[in-house]
Amino acid sequence: MPRIPIEDNFSDVVSKAQRGLRISDEELCKRAEVTPEDLAAVKSGRVIDAVIRRVARHLRLGPNALEDLAHKRWYPDAPAFPHGFAIFNTPFEDIFVNSYLVWDAREKVGAAFDTGADSQGMLDVIGTEKIRLQMIFITHTHDDHIADLARLARETGAEVWASEREPVSHPGAQVFRENAHFHIGGLAIKTLSTWGHSPGQTTFYVTGLSYPLAVVGDSLFAGSIGGSTEHFADQHKNDVEKILRLPRNTVLACGHGPLTTVGQEKVHNPFFTS
Description:
Elements: H1 10-21, H2 25-32, H3 36-43, H4 49-58, H5 63-70, E1 85-92, E2 95-104, E3 109-113, H6 120-129, E4 132-137, H7 143-146, H8 149-156, E5 159-163, E6 174-176, E7 181-184, E8 187-193, E9 202-207, E10 213-217, E11 220-221, E12 224-225, H9 232-243, E13 251-254, E14 260-261, H10 262-268
Parallel strand pairs: 3-4, 4-5, 5-6, 10-13
Antiparallel strand pairs: 1-2, 2-3, 7-8, 8-9, 9-10, 11-12, 13-14
Helix pairs in contact: 2-4, 4-5
């Protein structure tokens, strides 16, 4: 698979933080002591290091991490799973969205996380590996993440599971609460409520593969965070307390952009290095 671009550039990060903290352009210029022209330039994508660093401090962002993002000096280095894991990156309107498949390579049973825009690639792997898909877990029910849910459920016969706080219209879908536990062959899956981007946004912590894995949906991205105008503080708090406290080598499977790890996000994500 071609290298997946980082989802948010530095100007996206600035805008998300500003919206989440509800700081106007006028107020940010005043606090950071930058001109409206320079702030507008940075928010449009122009790299002005002095302005980026000043603005970062007043948006609770790590200046070094934000500057590295602006200069494209960092891209996550995620370990490769020798078996039992696959990522699918499909186009949805003007964006790309990820979905994931995990399976017990010995027992040939597996689980899917979201469907993306098109589940054909996942169905191909299921067929090639002769996997019996037992469950489809939904991180959240935004259209891009469940666009092909009906097809994947129909063709595999798998159960569909989502948080009790997340609206899901799929017939027969079942719901779970936080800290629910599931087992797929030798794999263990635990649900963590990392809401904020959506009411029932869930992270699924998977053990039994070559590395611990957290399927985080839009809770966070490599170098960024899932957007939320109304619940930004809750999203950030849940990310810090429930995702970033997982083991440092935990691979983070994000809803958009590349794989990353807990350890790398603690160092390179501007939202967590302030």
